[in-house]
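Repro:
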Amino acid sequence: MNYKNLLKKRSGLTMSEALFTLAIIGVIASLTIFGLVAKISDAKNMAALKKFYTSISQVTMFVILDRSSPNYWGLDQYSQDSSALAYSYYKPYFKIVRDCSNATGCWQYPTKFLSGKVYLKRAQMYQYMFTLVDGMNVIMNVYPRDIVRSEFGVNVDKDSVVFIIDVNGNTSPNQMGRDIFAFVLNGSEVVPGGKDNTYNCNKAASGLTCAARVIDDGWKITYY
């Protein structure tokens, strides 16, 4: 018996086995590449988020110097007029390429919660939307105090302006806690959503409070 030929026969792969092995290698490679792309995307989004937080904090200081405390702006919850008024105060300090008010063109729909459920299907009448020169999309809205406390995790004393920022513009995933984050005008400063409570920053919830979680975790997404 030719043991050398027998060994070759026993150790060789059939065509189906070879294809199956290649398929497994391909799946593993694609998962690895997908993971790397996701990490790179998250890192870019965090850099953009940090840039926006620095910018909005500086702009708010100038706005308050010019317009006094937001406590005296007469803001009403869910009001297009209030959102437009607050935007008019901020506009001179922003570099804006698109001004959409509450019309389409400055925001990508549908917008999703961190859980994957739809948050926004279309523009709302009481929102004010615009796009910055670096491609970030922004919604300004005036929410009632109780909603800001319960949904955005910031213990405000009055109805307040909430900035919802899509740091990579129209690029996916358009999801809270991934590329969309909230900041709240609380008195004389802008604070991240979740400053006082980050309870809904998890994969089963809205993600409206993830901005504070990201900052506390060193500008990294650790919850997804």
